[in-house]
Design goal:
Rossmann fold, alpha/beta
Length: about 220
Amino acid sequence: MDKVRIIEVKQSIFADNDRDADKLREELKIKKTFLLNLMSSPGSGKTTFLKGIIKRLKDDISIGVMEADIDSDVDALAIKETGVKAIQLHTGGMCHLDASMTRQGLEEFGVNDLDLVVLENVGNLVCPAEFDTGAVKNAVILSVPEGHDKPLKYPLMFQVADILIINKIDVLDYFDFDLEKVKAYALMRNPKLKIFTVSAKTEEGLDDVASYLKAEVLAWTK
């Protein structure tokens, strides 16, 4: 029997995307626009969280939101109710955005008058973590009902994130969720993670996140 031919691939299949993402970040720096990539599972409370953050920041910095979904414009319509600029990005069945797709959205959106653009990525803890979108910071929301073991099951998501937002702490008493364990697991994956605990529903903890983001945006845009 002939031996199987093995080809060793030394260059990442994501190399082109990584270069495009780096270039996009450079362009955004020149334009003084901060891009935040917000990721999570479906139902984690991304949109509710985002509405609470917008309420706290929109009087101080100009904000725009790009809502990425496989279909529907439900989230974009919800964000527009806050009074900020919002568009919907349909991914055509794809479960993530890459740098090229993000660039298309930004060009269509227009960012010259925006300090902060939030990319609400497709709800998924796997695919979005694999592609650099060109964002300045990556944030992931993990909600209490999902369980504290997610950093162990989906390590890449927590490795690429700069910010971990633990949401729905108002229901901690009703779930077998260990707050200290999830923090330890997440920091094991990424010791540099900035961790916040919040309830988007009651708005507990949102002031701290908003203050942090405002400082990051102002540092990037000055």
